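Much of the work behind modern protein science is quiet bookkeeping, done one molecule at a time. The protein below has been through that process, and both of its lines are reproduced in full.
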Amino acid sequence: MARLELQRLEVGPWPMNCYLLRCPVSGELAIVDPGADAEEILRAAGDSLVRCILLTHGHPDHVGALEAVREATGAPVGIHPADAANFGVQADFPLIDGMEVSVGEALVTIAYVPGHTPGSVCLRLNGQAVVGDAIFPGGPGHTASPQALRQSLDSLARTVFTWPDETELYPGHGIHTLVGAERTAFRRFLETDISADLYGDVSWA
């Protein structure tokens, strides 16, 4: 099985991370979260066959250039059904927990991590994972209610924090981190007396 090559592009005014996942054998690639700057994304893709467009979630800053990139490449779009419905994103196939998506001679495995949005997913590949806004260095992604924060923590415990410490986590904004770099603080956070009203921008500290 080939090992996908990951390329990060900073796009938009925030900025947001768009990723290209390229099979080194076939040259095919997947575009992840085309949030803005369609021309820049397409320039980075070059003449490669875009096998699919994968969305970690449906927030506008992650899908802002979707239609332009979809039209230019003709590639099918995958998103979790909950976010397709919640954000009105037209998808060609659903991203379901545990499914595998082929990119050339490599595979991307979907992990469902609701909390930041109802349909957030992470994309696992070769000891790396594109995690959208599910987790960042130092804390979980923004949540809209205490219930969403609890769901996010449960999701991360079920998925990300069962992965090896050396797994690299590539978020939707900013720099990457490692599972091992977050694990101790995450466990310590779960052991604290978490306020029933806590949500929003939360850190492990």
Summary: The chain has a mean pLDDT of 97. Helices lie at 38-45, 60-63, 66-73, 81-87, 146-158, 179-191.
